[in-house]
Amino acid sequence: MSHPIFPDLKSASVFITGGGSGIGAALTEGFLRQGAKVAFVGQSDASAFVDQMETATDNRPLFIQCDITDTSALQAAIDKAAAAHGPITALTNNAANDKRHATEEVDEAFWEWSMTINLKAYFFACQAVLPAMKSAGGGTIINMSSISYMMGNAGYPLYTTANAGITGMTRSLAREFGPDGVRVNAIAPGWVMTQKQKDMWVTPEALAGHLDRQCVKTELEPEDMVGPVLFLASNMSRAITGQLIAADGGVVVTG
């Protein structure tokens, strides 16, 4: 899948959480092909992926191994990325974990873990990049959410709770930092066929049922999220902030 070129993204300093696998890997490649300077974090070693991206795009990303549930480590990774590539002007909060769970089984430790990885890390990444964006006269933040909470899905109530929180946070930060030229938006993917989803939860019956709910009857791939993110990161969307865009093939509607 090819994407249009956004000239203002060339040489932009971009930071992505969870940028070495799934949707995040597609976003890393998408920004690299724009000529951006990309740094990303992940919990697992991504050295092979970095080499692969350099070969494919002639643009080597900076990988910083980091557990985003460790706020100080996440902040340090953002500082390291800024030192290498210049102040971050485009942040994509992408890392998340939709581990299935029943309400009755949730204890405080699982609550804290789920909220930390799915919401708290988003907030503190935003907080960490905002001073430099304000100094630069602007920047853009894209928070990856999910349509799960909009559908009222069962099976992972803490995940949907965090997703709803992402939307609220996005709108408040957009209002707070809009005067500084910082735009903050969210994207809610539908059921994207990452390898993790295929390995753990995709069955022919479940997929058929979900496709029945989509207006567009084709499976969504990680690459389908790249265009919306690049658009929101570029000046082409300079009038758009505080919004949630559902990139889901038409399962839910907004407005």
UniProtKB/TrEMBL annotation:
Which residues does UniProt call coiled coil?
Answer: none
Please name the CDD domains in this protein's record.
SDR_c (cd05233)
Its keywords, alphabetically, are: Oxidoreductase
* Source species, domain of life: Bacteria
In its UniProt record, a GO molecular function of this protein is: oxidoreductase activity
Tell me which residues make up the Ketoreductase domain: 12-191
Q: Does the keyword Secreted apply?
A: no
Q: Which InterPro entries match?
A: KR_dom, NAD(P)-bd_dom_sf, SDR_fam
- Give the protein family: Belongs to the short-chain dehydrogenases/reductases (SDR) family.
| Record protein name field | NAD(P)-dependent dehydrogenase (Short-subunit alcohol dehydrogenase family)
What is the organism field in this record? Yoonia maritima
